[in-house]
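name: query_chain
kind: protein
chains: 1
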Amino acid sequence: MSRSRARYAPEYRQQMADLVRSGGSPDQLAREFEPSAQSVRNWVAQADRDEGRRSDGSTTAEREELRRLRRARQQAGYVSSSSSRPRGIHT
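structure:
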């Protein structure tokens, strides 16, 4: 079972990304502060996507929009075709 912890504030993640961009290493920041070095690397990559420096994934705004749409679809009672009866079977 994985450990869960409270999410870090977006401002904190941005500060860590800024520290890396100004010359700090994720490993050094991980030793000095609490998040893992991989978390810091992930935050830098996501900040780069959000700022248009990378295009290899979704921006934070795009992720939030998808989350909102999925929640709305779920609340509307939408049932996906994959959860209904198999294709070709008619009753």
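note: The mean pLDDT is 88.
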